[in-house]
């Protein structure tokens, strides 16, 4: 008699949650990604106590059909990819179908969703992987996710959470990146009832940068814009006199997805070359677009790392684009009239 058996779903979800849900900010990242994938034009986020007590994400996207709502919380269930071929050309932020079941395995989740403005909506509640209720209710079009008491059933994980302030910092990072990635979406973020961020959602990246980093930094940044048949780059980057000590100053977005990528940051630094003081980074937001086949996002469970199929070409493209931008403006003192 053998001793190997498949894990039951609940246990499998808890294990997956260990990878996907590190802290409240990881939950927030997944929920915002889902809202973006649903085509939202407005995403409202609120949190209490660094997200440990409560996270709420409401969007005005497509919504989830009543019959699909339970399925959305099932492991490896997704509306975003269907075939192996799809995996090599992912156009959405999500695709693993792992986030919702993982979150529901380690928290108390309520989801209200409606696919139209008839007023009819469906609501589901799941706590620690156990279905509490799934019934009709009333709500406008879109989806509201409320996640309470993260790690209530995994005390070992809860013990590792840092102070409210640290968790809030991570939540803010997540919102900032998503807001920078999508200036066409209006974001709000409030914490313990205080509004911390509001972006206009009018497509203007500079206004998002102003909301996050302040108006004077935003005003001083210069526009990067270039394309070739494979890549297009759009962004804002600081003059070498406006630098920061933190490498997080550079936000890299690939097809709207925030990633950590030396393949982009290094050529950017190279382009500034000797203009940058040692160990200083320019404040920059770099948006790269490319055909999904040129980038593999299925590398990392949190999808923070990607692989490029033509990395050296990409590096050269980024370096040239930034060089052209910086060298055209670098020696003009900020505030001076350029034209
Ligand atoms: P993935 O995003 O990888 O598909 P998730 O577990 O995050 O997996 O979500 C499962 C499914 O639930 C998604 O494929 C999508 O169909 C649906 N869904 C989740 N959140 C939303 C939302 N905010 N709006 C519309 N549909 C959603
Ligand atoms: Mg998702």
TrEMBL record:
Name of the protein in its database record: DNA mismatch repair protein MutL
Keyword Acyltransferase: no
Job of this protein: This protein is involved in the repair of mismatches in DNA. It is required for dam-dependent methyl-directed DNA mismatch repair. May act as a 'molecular matchmaker', a protein that promotes the formation of a stable complex between two or more DNA-binding proteins in an ATP-dependent manner without itself being part of a final effector complex.
Family: Belongs to the DNA mismatch repair MutL/HexB family.
Keyword Zinc in record: no
Record's keyword terms, sorted: DNA damage, DNA repair
A GO biological-process term: mismatch repair
DNA mismatch repair protein S5 domain mapped to chain residues: 209-327
Shown chain mapped onto the complete sequence: 1 to 339 of 641
Organism: Cohnella abietis
GO MF term set: ATP binding; ATP hydrolysis activity; ATP-dependent DNA damage sensor activity; mismatched DNA binding
GO-annotated cellular components: mismatch repair complex
């Amino acid at each position: 008699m053998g001793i190997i058996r498949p894990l039951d779903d609940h246990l499998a979800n808890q294990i997956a949650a260990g990878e996907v849900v590190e802290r409240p900010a990881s939950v927030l990242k997944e929920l915002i990604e889902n809202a973006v994938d649903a085509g939202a034009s407005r995403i409202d986020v609120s949190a209490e106590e660094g997200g440990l007590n409560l996270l709420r994400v409401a969007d005005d996207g497509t919504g989830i059909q009543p019959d699909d709502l339970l399925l959305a919380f099932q492991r490896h269930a997704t509306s975003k990819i269907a075939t192996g071929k799809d995996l090599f050309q992912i156009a959405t932020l999500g695709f693993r179908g792992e986030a919702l079941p993982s979150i529901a395995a380690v928290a108390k989740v309520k989801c209200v969703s409606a696919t139209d403005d008839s007023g009819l909506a469906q609501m589901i509640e799941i706590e620690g992987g156990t279905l509490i209720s799934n019934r009709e209710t009333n709500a406008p079009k879109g989806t509201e996710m409320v996640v309470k008491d993260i790690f209530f059933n995994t005390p070992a994980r809860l013990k590792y959470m840092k102070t409210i302030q640290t968790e809030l910092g991570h939540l803010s990072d997540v919102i900032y990146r998503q807001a920078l990635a999508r200036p066409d979406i209006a974001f709000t973020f409030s914490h313990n009832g205080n509004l911390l961020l509001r972006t206009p959602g009018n497509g203007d990246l500079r206004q998002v940068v102003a909301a996050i980093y302040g108006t004077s930094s935003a005003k001083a940044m210069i526009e990067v814009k270039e394309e070739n048949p494979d890549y297009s780059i759009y962004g804002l980057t600081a003059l070498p006199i406006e630098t920061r000590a933190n490498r997080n100053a550079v936000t890299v977005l690939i097809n709207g997805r925030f990633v950590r990528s030396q393949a982009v940051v290094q050529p950017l630094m190279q382009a500034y070359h000797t203009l940058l003081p040692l160990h200083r980074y320019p404040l920059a937001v770099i948006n790269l677009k490319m055909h999904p086949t040129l980038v593999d996002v299925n590398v990392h469970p949190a999808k923070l790392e990607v692989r490029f199929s033509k990395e050296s070409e990409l590096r050269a493209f980024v370096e040239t684009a930034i060089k052209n931008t910086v060298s055209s403006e670098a020696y003009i003192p900020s505030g001076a009239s350029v034209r």
